[in-house]
Specification:
alpha+beta; Tetrahydropterin Synthase, Chain A; three-stranded antiparallel β-sheet; 11 helices
């Protein structure tokens, strides 16, 4: 009896028995007795709490000792166009990529659902939710492309570089194993763009810095994305070039007098061109025209001189009007003795406020008829 070994296997264990280093049997839960006369038998015990087999030796034994192992192990494999969903005890466990294999101990119930991704490339909502909650995040990030298209956006689906269809608002998932899948999200609402800090020479060689603002929207997303590598950069460049042409063909005085001409020129030049690429230019406007420091000084001096000249003209005009009025008054006084006396009395009233004593000869008649003599 000394040549018999007593082996106890727990509920969460399985054992492999090797005789002369060759696998002879697999031991399940329970107490086992093995005869070993010359020490030729070895036993390896494995914890099967996690039913997935990751031991490389066991994977090799599955191929070389299939008859011994098939009762205790289950092998799952996928070809190049398949994926497999693995359920353990009725619960989703993991996702298998194409051309892969896994081995499990037959200690629990294992169910496998295979999907042919050459025909079913789009994942259902239920499957997306199922896979997203699984622990196989690395497989998920590589194999399942999930994109959400929100309201006022559209998605463009490309498979192997070819446009397939337009996706409306919603959540989408596509298997990304055997084919390259890409979803381009395009905003269809109006968007703003600023063309800032453009150093431009006017027709009379004055350097300006101009800031331009534009509003646009994507009218045809398929054309915009398919025809242009970056439609925003394309629009920016077109606005920039049109702005340079608009300013380069006018003098500084003309630009400062009519800024709206820049807006009109840029809008007319860019709208038709970008429309060919699925873009709609809604509005364009010059925000700022910034002059160099020395040019600001010169313009300020010009404005100051203009204002001074206008002020001088107004002053001379008022002086002329006052002189003309005085002349008219003098003519009326020349023609009317009473009016002249009234003017004298008006003058007397003004002077009386500033003198201490007034002497009047001849009484009231003297005041009315004679010349007033004032002594201070």
């Amino acid at each position: 009896m000394i040549f018999r070994k007593r082996i106890v296997i727990a509920d969460n264990e399985r054992a492999l028995v090797f005789r002369d280093r060759q696998l002879t049997e697999v031991l399940a839960t329970g107490v086992h007795y093995i005869t070993d006369v010359l020490g030729r038998v070895s036993v390896k015990v494995f914890d099967v709490t996690d039913p997935e087999v990751r031991n490389i030796q066991i994977k090799s034994l599955m191929r070389n000792k299939a008859q011994v192992c098939k009762q205790y192990f289950e092998e799952i494999s996928t070809d190049e166009t398949e994926i497999a969903l693995i359920y353990i005890d009725g619960k989703f466990k993991s996702l298998m990529a194409p051309q892969s294999e896994k081995i499990y101990w037959k200690t629990i119930k294992i169910d496998v659902t295979k999907i042919d991704i050459s025909t079913d490339i789009q994942a259902t909502d239920k499957l997306m939710t199922l896979v997203a909650k699984s622990a196989s995040s690395s497989v998920l990030s590589k194999g399942l492309l999930i994109k959400e298209v929100v309201n006022k956006q559209i998605g463009l689906l490309f498979i192997d570089g070819q446009f397939i269809k337009v996706l409306s608002a919603g959540k989408y998932g596509f298997w990304n194993y055997s084919k390259t899948v890409a979803i381009e999200i395009v905003e269809t609402r109006a968007q703003s763009m600023d063309v800032t800090g453009q150093e431009i020479l006017t027709k009379d060689k004055v350097s300006l810095r101009v800031n331009l603002s534009a509003t646009f929207k994507v009218a045809d997303a398929k054309t915009a994305v398919s025809s242009l590598s970056n439609y925003a950069e394309f629009l920016y460049t077109e606005l920039q070039l049109a702005l340079r042409k608009a300013i380069g063909t006018q003098t500084l005085d003309a630009l400062l007098t009519d800024k709206e001409s820049i807006d009109s020129y840029v809008r007319k030049s860019v709208t038709k061109k970008v429309a060919e690429f699925g873009l709609s230019l809604l509005d364009v406007g010059v925000k700022d025209i910034i002059l160099p420091g020395e040019m600001k000084t010169i313009l300020n001096q010009v404005v100051e001189a203009e204002k001074a000249a206008k002020a001088n003209i107004i002053k001379r005009r008022e002086e002329t009007a006052a002189t003309r009025s005085l002349l008219n008054t003098a003519k009326l006084m020349d023609e009317s003795t009473t009016l002249r006396r009234l003017k004298e009395l008006e003058t007397l009233e003004k002077i009386a406020d500033k003198v201490d004593k007034i002497t009047v000869f001849g009484g009231m008649e003297g005041v009315i008829q004679d010349t007033v003599k004032i002594s201070v």
